[in-house]
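This part of the workshop introduces the protein records we will be handling. As an example, a complete record with its sequence and its structure tokens follows.
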Amino acid sequence: MVGTGDIGVTRTELMRRDIVDKDTKFGAYANKYLIDESYTFTNQELKEMKQSWHDLYSHCLREIDRRFPPSNMGVFQLLQVLDPSIVHGTLRRQRIGTKDLAAAVADLLSVFEIPLHTSLASKYSIMDIKNSFTAFRYSEVCADMWELQVQRYARQPFDHTVVYSFYKTLLQMPDIAPWAFACLFLLIFPTGNACAERGFSAMGATHTKARQEMTNEQVWAHMVIQYNGPELDEYTTILDDESRVPNWWGHVSHNNYND
């Protein structure tokens, strides 16, 4: 469920807020809350609660749209090829969208070629990974191993971490190892916290105790400059050079020093 209709092309649109009332089947958590609580709500309170959940969902979906616009959703579609249930599940899908699985793998490797090359350069090439996927795709041994994983969780909620352990096991198979290694990398890569930690550090350096009343927009502007601007020494040199030019807006004439 993504998209609210507010930003460009959307994928799933919420019902309009003005038609949300006390009887709207909206917000599973809100419905459960009403059942669990012994307090008797008025019709107006029920309506306001449902509308507040609509506001929360709308906000979350808008933020998802901003961070993952439709043009980027193709990457998430390609990432499905990492799911063993697609390759070795009961349906044995041969395509993701309009692409053959091998083509989806090629596109996915192209998207992540630089980080993959950095991490796998001393171990596997992109061609090794492609060939390894072909071996994985048609391997009955891998299919049997996945079926055992699924059966283990047949009578309890499926634990998706078994995908990681499944590929970790496949590292022991030489023909499959390059694909397993790439899958493990791509499964972990988006969850790394290095980018977030850099962001926290940059924000901390900008939003200091002496500048704690800066608005979000001001903090963001300073962080953009910090990320994309020249180094401090280089910037001060440029500033010093430009400040000597009489037509520069910030030029201070020596004649004004005594004013």
